[in-house]
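> Could you send the Pyridoxal-dependent decarboxylase domain-containing protein 1 prediction when you get a chance?

Sure thing. Input:
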Amino acid sequence: MVDSTLDQVGKNLSEAMRFLGEEQREPEAATERQHFSRSCIPGPLQGDGQDVATVLRLVHNLIHEEEDEEDKPSQKMQNVGEHGQMALLGHSLAAYISMMDKEQLRKLTTRIQSDTTLWLCRLFRYENGSTCFHEDDRDGLVKVCRLVINARYEEYATEGYVVLNTRQPVIYQSASCRPGLGQHLCSQLGLPLSSLCTVPCNTLFGSQHQMDVALLEKLIKEDINAGKLPLLLIANAGTPGAGHTDKLGRLKELCDQYNMWLHVEGVNLATLALGQVTSSIMAATRSDSMTLTPGPWLGLPAVTAVTLYRHEDPALSLAAGLTSSHPVEKLRALPLWLSLQYLGHNGIVQKIKHATTLSQLFLQKVQSLTCIKTLVEDESDSPVVLFKFNQEESTASSESFCAGEKEVLDAFNRWLGEELAELVPTSGIDVVELEDEATCVRFSPLLTAAVLGTREEDVESIVEKMTELVFVMSSTMSLREDFREETHKRSPSLRYINEFAWPGLGVVRYEMQANGMDEDRKKQEQEKINTELLKKLQDLDTDILFSTGPEFVTEQGCIFVGMVTDDVDVSDLVDTIAALGRDIEESGKLLQNMTEVVRKGILEAELQLQKANEEKLVEEGMLRQLPVVGSVLNWFSPIQSSIKGRTFSLAAGSLDSTEVTYSTKAQADRPSLQDTPISSSKKLPGQKLFRRAGASTDSTETSCTQAEATFQEENPTGIGSSINPPISPPTPEMPHHTSGDLVPEKNLKSSSEIDDLEASEEMHPEGQEAEGSTR
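Output:
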């Protein structure tokens, strides 16, 4: 008969997971989530309690709070599966079991730990082993070191660290170990960093990622001669970055020779559960201890890591913390105990075999790509596939290599890994940094396949997407030098920025030509120009990505050009950038100088108005200037004035005579800056900008010429004008044949009336206007 409480624990867990995993929420739930978001600031505990549903709803809202604040798309919670639910149930049951009677609890925990130890030792071929379950996967190694110190220093239990002064202990680790592991050991054990010895990897013979055994033996002998005590060696069965395995058999012989403890860790230890195991991995079963991480291997959430070890003295194991006399601490094995029973031996082996099959399938397919280089020496046996984009494979020669090429390749490989991880989320692709190979892309299904549910179809998708991305990367890499040269040709208008960390065609900045301007002012204006230029480029009908680049860059106010294909006309692209920048700069100068132009025009008009009045006085005489007498004289003896009106052109910033205007009834035509021949860049209907129509440059020019009329017909005022900016900036000249083109001189009395000049108006001498009013 099943305990009703246990049954209720299972039901509550299922209900909680169902509630937290719901994707579609009702509209009122979104409003309620906003309410919880506003009240998420910690405050006093409410006096009245809340039911389970309310508490779970609060947890759900807190999980999705960041998505609501930043308007992110709702992210689906990871599906843990039924075997994962067993692990989660184990945590709930552990809390319930901890309230049992002490004697009953002791018997139950002893059975759970004994079963789990037996299953794991048989599964991973580790005979006569004991287990230590720990949350942090480094804690097992820390406790093993304490065990070795207690075993090698007999008086350590009574004298403490004083006995270590007699012979300083030394811990050896490979240079390929995970970063910070040795420092963590020293800090937890209270040892100086001088007790840590990092052994380099092979440099001349053998794998460049395996520990140099000959150099290790030399270091051990030197430490012994210096009065130190070689204590423990940490070896890898799958390095954290590349998945390489040390020569475990040779290292075990060396440890036996110098009475050292051998500890092994790494992802490749999972393959010990398979039917066929390589000899290099099988040697790990002879080690003194090894750490396993079944959680990611089997897709089990919140499952502890396990350290298997062999030691005959239980008292020393208890003193080192490898075992515990508290039954509650033994309940750490309960989630793994439940999950192992649920999966069974065949289910566990099947999951690990599925992951290794995925890695071998991916390796076979990725090796067919000539521009991809794989970096695992023992490729046929390694469950980790490490690869990178190789420029030497994608280009005919290495002549295009320039300064900073290594940084450029690192940026391209980083972009490749990030794009693959985004395009195929279930792939588990990630980017790793290696000391010798720099930035690489890693596919390690043993760590991700069980959690993400990676299938063979996902491997096909990875290879398909990678083929497309590598083609774009190869094209971009081959055109980077052309982009740099084309930019230098247009100096000083454009400046090429050497941003090696940018995965794209290149980085460019428009340099404004302003002599004598203050540096701070020039910097601000230049930043405005490049910001506006970036907006115009982003509005163009093209597949090329223009951006401000990554968050942390050495140069500010630049335009970062993204990946391109091989049919991009780099010269046309650079021409467009330079022309648009020049257009923005000149337009800005026009707006800045418009006030000064109008002010000077008004002053000139005032001078000419005064001169015209003086000439009028000389020509007509004093009598005609008198209000009554002048009208009578003009009536008896009309006079034809030779004084002409004036027009003020905002485009030219000059005063001109209206004689031509009155004779032709239209303002004199001026060459419009808008009619200036534009750039020769054209595109065929449906063709993206900067694309060559033919396979070569010559055919491109021909096809572009033939498509010119069609392009102008389809784009009379749209994209064509923005892509092909005029050589000089357009000036705000007013429309022709309007009375607004003439500015009356009598209204141009002072420079303070600039705001009233919305158009040009006709200017008459003061005397003639008086005549009209008298009539």
